Each structure stands twice: as structure tokens, then as C-alpha cells.
Amino acid sequence: MTAHEIDYTIYGEEMQYVEVELDPQEGVVAETGSFMMMEEGIKMETIFGDGSKNDSGFLGKILGAGKRILTGESMFMTVYYNTLSGKRRVSFASPYPGKIIPIDLTRYGGKFICQKDAFLCAAKGVSIGIEFSKRLGRGFFGGEGFIMQKLEGDGMAFVHAGGTMAMKELQAGEVLRVDTGCIIGFDHTVDYDIEFVGGIKNSIFGGEGLFFAKLRGPGTVYIQSLPFSRLAGRVWAAAPQGGGKNKGEGSILGGLGDLLDGDNRF
Fold it and tell me: What is the spatial distance between Cα 98 and Cα 230, in angstroms, rounded to a whole number?
């Protein structure tokens, strides 16, 4: 299935959203919960899977929905169609601070691999599936990078990165080592594996985990500075635990500092 040709504009700096412009009968498929706003004439349709040709037929739709469950996503996706004669616009927002990255799949040989929660939306006709690991090490120790999504087709797709985004162009044989959670996605020509950090002190006291991702070129790699799991972990660690008091972060006086600065919650 040839993907719909869509135009788009990305707005904002740290809390971005993408506005997609649809010609008559064009559509865009998006993750549940990413919708922001739309103009009159846009019709919403909830579907199993991604609605691509690969998911045609009842069994294909069930299999497509099952694949999405394995990546931790909802069984359903939403398609937004322009039902009027003129151009209409629909917008999708980032789930947390970061950048929205447009991916033209024709530039990546029709296939792009991304982190399981990175996908935001894509032109109707793009297939959103899963990329299973074929290596035991990657499967057992890959962490967030174990099951990844693959975007296939010839249309535009949009993925989200937390924090600041870095793009690396790896030459043939060039290696880049990355925290598994910091990967946004990469070209399908990039070889991806898991490598042990090494060293007793690094393993026990390093605080960075026992394994990191090893990416070998050629191909393009996108890296994020703030994975959502890392952000959520910091928020959870700083949140009041049990008794409801905070940790007095930023003050050497701790709880006494709360009394002095007017925070008198007990």
C-alpha cells in the first residue's frame, strides 16, 4: 500500500506538537492519547492495528493488534481522515518535554527501527510493527531496547525524543555505545547488540546498569538525552514516600528547611 502524501509543520521548542495538513480523503494514523486538536471536516475512526495492507482481513487485524500488545501499546489506533473538499489540519502533541522528529521512510530504504514508545503518528499506509531480537544477549539484557517497533512503507512518520536529540551518521564499521533507554531509533542497516559494561567496580558501583547498546554502522542513529523511564525514576525518587514528607532536596537543613521557607506540611 502506498502511503498518503501528507504535509506537516512542527511547532514549539521543548513541548512540541506536529500539525498535519490533509488533502481530501487523506488520512493519518496516530497512537491513542496523542491527539491535540483538529479542524472541522476531520473524521476519526478507531481501528485494530495500523490499518496498513499487511493487516487486511480479520485475522491480519487481530495479529496486528497482538503485536502492539507485545510492545506495551494499546490494541487500537486512531485514523483521522479529511472528508471535505478543501485542506484540513489535525495536530498531535508530544507526551513529555522533548523533540518531534520527522522520518521520511523513503530515505531509509522503507524501514526504520525505533524505541517501543517513540512512535507518535504517521501517514495512512505506513505499517507499524515490531522488531524482534534474534540474539539471546539482546533479548535477555536489552532492557528498554529488547522489543522495538519497526516503521515500514514509503510515507512520513513522526517519532518523539525526550530532552535533547542527537543524530549520528555512522560509517561502515563505526561503533557507538549508548544507554539502551537513550536510543530513539536507527536505520535498518545499523547492527544492534547488547554489550556487558565490564569491570567489577563499574558493574556494582557505576550506577549505569550492567549492559549498554552497541550500534555498528553504516546508518543513521537518533539518540535522546532524557528517556521517559529516567525522568519517571527521578520524579518517583524525589516524591514523598510513606509518611508524605519530601526529602528536603536542595537544602542541607532538610525538614527544618521546610519550616524556615514556609513549607509547613506535616
Answer: 13
> For 157-200, how does the pLDDT look when each residue is reduced to its tens digit (9 = 90+)?
999 999 899 999 999 999 999 988 889 999 999 998 888 765 55
pTM: 0.78
Three cell numbers, residue 94: 508530544
Residues 169/172/177/178 CA torsion (nearest 10 deg): 40
Could you give the 3-state DSSP secondary structure of residue 158?
strand
148 near 115, Cβ under 8 Å? yes
How many other C-beta atoms can be found within 10 angstroms of the C-beta atom of residue 215?
A: 22
- Taking the mean position of all CA atoms in its chain, how far away is CA 80? 20
Per-residue model confidence (pLDDT) at position 167: 95
- Grouping H, G, I as helix, E, B as strand and the rest as coil, residue 91 is strand
**For 57-77, how does the pLDDT look when each residue is reduced to its tens digit (9 = 90+)?**
555 555 655 555 555 556 778
Distance from the Cα of residue 94 to its chain's centroid:
10
CA nearest 92: which of 5, 139, 29?
Answer: 29
Q: For residue 147, count CB atoms less than 10 angstroms from its CB and return exposed for 0-12, middle for 13-18, buried for 19 or more.
A: middle
Length of the chain, in residues = 266
Strands (E), the chain: 7-11, 17-22, 27-31, 35-38, 42-48, 76-82, 88-93, 98-104, 111-114, 119-123, 127-131, 148-152, 156-162, 165-170, 175-178, 183-187, 191-196, 211-216, 219-224
